[in-house]
## 1
Amino acid sequence: MAEQKYYQKEIETMPREEMRALQSEKLVKQVKHVYENVKYYRDLMDAKGVTPDDIKSIDDIHKLPFLTKADLRDAYPYGLLGTDLKNCVRIQSTSGTTGRRVVAFYTQADVDMWEDCCARAITAVGGTNEDVCQVAYGYGLFTGGPGLNGGSHKVGCLTLPMSSGNTERQIQFMRDLHATILCCTPSYAAYIGETLKEMGLTPDDIDLKAGIFGAEPWTEEMRRDIEKSLGIKAYDIYGLTETSGPGVAFECEAQAGMHINEDHFYAEIIDPETGEVLPEGSKGELVFTSLDKEGFPLLRYRTRDICVLSRKECSCGRTLIKMSKPMGRSDDMLIIRGVNVFPSQIETVLIKEGYSPNYLIEVDRVKNNDTLDVYVELAPEQFSDTVKDLAIKEKSLAEAIKTMLGINPKVHLVAPKTITRSEGKAVRVIDKRKLHD
Ligand code: ADP
Ligand code: ZN
């Protein structure tokens, strides 16, 4: 097996009508099963006056009630379990980015399905049994490591289960064992690229050709930065513990949006304020229904991730619907002086202006006024500048950010290596207002 374009061709290139029929068949079965086995969700359906008989096809999905993170907290730990605990073989948990941990259960069939999704992602970036796949996502309760590890096995890659951390050793193994595919968070990929340079090495000293990076928001500018520092093509991958983990959606050779594995996860976009389903092409909150999960079968789960869905034809030949890069979740959005700000917007400006993706955003409230401070790390070659030059640079960067956001930040250019690097999901924002409230 050398070049193989798709992992499950029949599904990945399935005509739309056939896909809808498959989704309908799975949904009808899943709703009935959940209604009969998950009391928590049955109560929600009863309260809405919906019975399994009302769900005859995928077109009826909007009749079902939503599930939210608050429901997951209420039902913790076993309330949304879809089968007997003795049928489950695995537990994974969210990384707790937003402070609320979720515990998800998997049967063996769930693990298989999840790993197939990751295998589709690896195959889509050109992975075959001739590749060496270095998995530098954390292993453990976090879904990143186990998910890509399983996908890599399924594709038949030689898997290097490095987990995250110990960056110099990562690079040494990468070189000695000729890793060709790297899987980790984009912030860790950037850090690996930086370390490579510090070790006096260049992309020519490694054999990497592709990277599969996800689990946190990252910008196109960051993609180009990583591609350059590691000499690879960098692809996005998306997922969440509530639906399984990474592999819910993945990027193909077109590098323009991620194909959703919609035979398993049905996607809708809703208005986050009203809950109304929005037409294709609208920006809104992504909602997922697990069509065939057994252990943790969430129906209409509100992810809080903001993005756009598109069915435009893709050059790779896949017919799976695509989602745009989520610009961050609704919880990440900062409201500063009444203006909506996503950290990713600031990242875009920084990289465009020639700075590193090592930054920290600090928001506070002084005398009822919101303040925005952006700390940006200088590269060693930028640091030798005089104090006067630095002040000019700070001012010009503040201007560029103001043009993007419409509000004036205070920019602080700081010495190399003063901002903590991330080996997993990066922490970019400190909102001190929450501490006062
Ligand atoms: P936590 O909610 O604690 O971070 P997870 O590890 O399950 O737990 O993370 C899932 C979340 O990570 C998603 O809901 C999304 O906000 C974010 N995420 C995952 N992949 C991507 C990606 N490729 N781009 C942007 N955000 C992503
Ligand atoms: Zn494609």
## 2
Amino acid sequence: MTEQVKTQLEYMDKISKINKGKNLKYHIITMGCQLNENDSEKIAGMLMKMQYAETIDSHDANILIFNTCCVRENSEEKLFGKIGETKKLRKEKGTIVAICGCMMQEKHITEKIKKSYPFIDIIFGTHTLYKFAEDLYNLLQNKKKIVDVIDIDGEIYEGLPIKRNDNKKANVIIMYGCNNFCSYCIVPYVRGRERSRSPQDILNEVRELAKEGYKEITLLGQNVNSYAGKCRGELCSPEMPLREVFLPQANAVRPYTDNTSLRLRYSEYGNALDQTWDFAILLKEVAKIDGIETIRFLSPHPKDFTDEVIEAISENKKVSRWIHLPLQSGSTNVLKLMNRKYTKEQYLNLVEKIKNKIPDVVLSTDIIVGFPGETEEDFEDTLEVVKKVGFEQVYMFIYSKRIGTPAAEAQDQISEDIKHKRFDRLKKLVDAEVQKNNQKYIGKTEKILVEGFSKNNENMLTGRNSANKIIVFEGNSDLIGKTVEIKITSEHQWYLRGKVENNIERTSK
Ligand code: SAH
Ligand code: SF4
Ligand code: F3S
């Protein structure tokens, strides 16, 4: 546990004593990606320790938290609409209102909130989330509004309590921040530099989850395959084969014959000082943990997708066959302007390599339409790559200017009209491709973890196959949390329909 977290646990204890017996409740509204969802789970964990219980009704909450995202402009519009509505709530019920997350790392936003929404009690950023208990304590004691945002490269705080949203599937952060500075993207500015958690902390978290009965985990980070976690002064896994041993006194590198990329540095006395693990090693080690049936990861960057990672996936059936491989654009010119560090051809070669080594792979991607300077020809390159790869899911975004990013300064911005027309053309192609790809599932039997009732049809159950396809089928609630075999009967664009074929007995803990 990090020292700072110990201090925070003391604050949680103090607040818990103040709140005991008061029947207080919290409600968190989370916007953005899984990283924010994980942060919200940590905030919920802290609140539970401080004697707040969860409520699904924001009107019933004594503390209301907005965890914000700023990756695209529409997230701002959404937030301001929502916080405006809380003014009345705060006045009538005395609800504490806090706003946190990525958007709070943007100076112009916090200024706007302070000016236009002065009733907000606490504003905190991504780097001060771990201090939430201290901020809340100070608010309760001094009744003064708190703005706690710092702009730093970032640290890792281990040991915060967490209240997970699900009891079978869990997200496990492996690295924070991003060093890539894609020219359109705000994330590196609001989440700080890349920093990897230590392999011990990650493996211990996954082992704990397995013990608690979790079956699926998703390894999370903005760029998971640039993972470079260091063991702290001892061997994380003594049986791990070595490739290189650095001997600092002689400045020599002694290569070993096997092909993992674990590095072991020795002190002059020959003791192991630290090991740096890459993503391939981490995947292999996580896959050894009993009880975990499916391992997913989000998001890899094509430029860091090594042969070792492909091998680690192909060798481990537990690792999902679904790979999300963000393309962003199919045009080498645009990719260069985006600072993505790969060309159209390199992306296509990588896809070929992955398909050869993992024949049952399913690919999904992210694409931005209307990046500044994107010509009709560039856009057609994107359409061509989409046709060639045969993605089964494509998340399409219209380029959105982010203040402070280089692309926002570009003179050759694309008109809204062209952006929307291109978006529609891409969507049409993607819809047709997805439908075509879905055909191959019909008649197949898929083993899936039953997640719960379908959001769109309360009489149906859903789960996802190893390729992350949503499967909807009839069944009763006692199947939830169990692994079942489903025969696919039809396809419906974004989901597949099926029938329970065989219920693999597994008692949920
Ligand atoms: N680190 C991940 C995802 C980051 S954000 C990755 O690199 O894949 C998720 C997606 O939002 C990105 O993949 C990108 O497609 C989209 N996105 C990011 N900034 C954007 C912007 N300014 N306008 C439109 N889409 C954007
Ligand atoms: Fe943004 Fe690029 Fe980093 Fe992804 S890799 S978070 S798109 S800068
Ligand atoms: Fe949004 Fe922050 Fe995630 S900007 S996409 S919530 S890292």
